Amino acid sequence: MSEILLGITGGIAAYKSAMLVSKLVQHGCGVSVVMTQSATELIAPKTFEALSRRTVRTSVFHTDRIYAHIELARQADLFCIAPATANILAKAANGIADDLVSTLILSFDGPVLFAPAMNTAMWNKAAVQRNVRQLREDGALFIGPENGHLSCGETGAGRMAEPEKIVEEILRHIHP
Ligand SMILES: Cc1cc2nc3c(=O)[nH]c(=O)nc-3n(C[C@H](O)[C@H](O)[C@H](O)COP(=O)(O)O)c2cc1C
Questions:
Q1: Is 39 near ligand 1, meaning CB less than 6 Å away?
Q2: Positive or negative CA dihedral for 150, 134, 89, 104?
Q3: In this structure, which of 19, 77, 85, 169 has its CB flanked by the most CB atoms within 10 Å?
């Protein structure tokens, strides 16, 4: 059984990650979900616990597993961050590890797939594009973002790739 680590950060597209977990489980993957504090403001960890049938972890310190920030990385075949905020891209591009999701990005040595989602102005910002370039150079994988309707009411680049496409991309990498 393939093991997917799914990091959910604080973008409104986090609601679509529920479908992503459900589809991965239906494909026979084991899915462990980790969330940032911002993500828990937008969608409840319980939703992901119900869909993955596993504990969802949100903190390096307040967790049932004292070495969660290392052990979750050891058991994963691929680490997908969906949605990936501008903030997590900046942290990952600079090796910052100040919460569970960003710490796991450093402790994981397999493929990391980012599915960015944000407002068009944020996505086009030089700093964000610089961070994406740096991450690509460092070997990170990306899917999207796509053009389309954004929850802020605008239309443009920044929409998270659809869960079906993210699942296809994940499966392509773990079963080449
Ligand atoms: C309703 C709402 C929606 C948000 N959507 C996004 C988003 O799609 N992309 C993004 O980069 N930030 C978004 N933010 C801002 C992030 O939540 C904020 O930058 C936060 O610090 C990100 O923290 P994290 O990367 O640790 O999850 C949103 C904030 C709110 C209140």
A1: yes
A2: positive
A3: 85
Catalytic residue among 147, 152, 155, 164: 152
CB 25 within 8 A of CB 99: no
Q: How far apart are CA 18 and CA 8, in angstroms?
A: 10
Q: Is 131 in the pocket of ligand 1 (CB under 6 A)?
A: no
Convert the pLDDT of each residue in 51-84 to its tens digit. 999 999 999 998 888 888 899 999 999 999 999 9
Q: Please enumerate in sequence order all residues whose Cβ is within 8 A of that of 42, keeping only pairs 6 or more positions apart, or say none.
A: 10, 11, 12, 14, 15
Active-site residue flag, 152: yes
Cβ(142)–Cβ(101) below 8 Å: no
**pTM for this prediction:** 0.97
Q: Is the peptide bond before 145 cis (omega within 30 degrees of 0)?
A: yes
The per-residue pLDDT for range 147-170, each reduced to its tens digit, is 998 888 888 889 999 999 999 999
Using a 6 Å cutoff on CB, does residue 81 contact ligand 1? no
Domains and CATH numbers, the chain: 3-174 (3.40.50.1950)
